[in-house]
Write the structure tokens for this entry.
Amino acid sequence: MPLVPTASILAAARARGTGAAAFNVIHLETAEALVAAADETGLPLILQISENCVRYHGSMLPITRAALALAEAARTDVSVHLDHITEPDLIRQGVAAGVGSVMIDASTLPYTQNVATTAQLTSWCHEREVFVEAELGEVGGKDGVHAPGVRTDPEEALAFVAATGVDALAVAVGSSHAMRERTAKLDLELIARLREKLAVPLVLHGSSGVPDEELRAAIGAGMTKINISTHLVSVFTGRVRKVLETDPALIDSRKYVAPAREAVRSEAARLLHVLGDTGRMKEKTSGEAP
């Protein structure tokens, strides 16, 4: 089927009151697993390619074209999105390759520079009908606004969206990147305030560290796009370790990569239901007789 825009997936999720799953691609095997999970569940999916992923593969085109091909062949709605891109040239390369949405990450810059950089790149993207996500930044380093303790101010977020023209905003509400335990507690009241203040979809980064019920609650409070990477990477690596421990003499990488791909497919399918069935559960509850 034709490639589905990320904007369409987010708009549909907001209308239904569900979460839009955005899972990160690490290599071809994870991309295959994620699309298989979407096809199995019939739920939409955003495939994310980060700047780190691009650098791992040596250039933009190989992994991006593979992800685009998988998305186009999917039986359900799948889009391809560039995640945490700091280099303008990589944005241009991704758009030229056919990606229809990008996350511009200038969050480590001072606020005024973040606004100026994001606004300039957003204008360039919009001229090419490319959807743009961005984020505010106050704390340097990999975590940016998603370092523990940082929170997004609704008024500043509103000003940032107005000044940059972005289509979606990643907000800091209690999650953090690269968490290996699912123990994060989100500020649901802040999410509701941000949802009320902003017209654009809200994005939760660092969702790997957020428990299922907390993710459902965040969606109920107004979060739309839910980014998950570390958790699924851990599932893949854990299965590889288990297979190799069982058979230390194994040398054919397909014999341990295939089970790992299957493990990711299974967990991704489960998470798709966690995120994508939220609104459906609300509909069932509201339709029940008193």
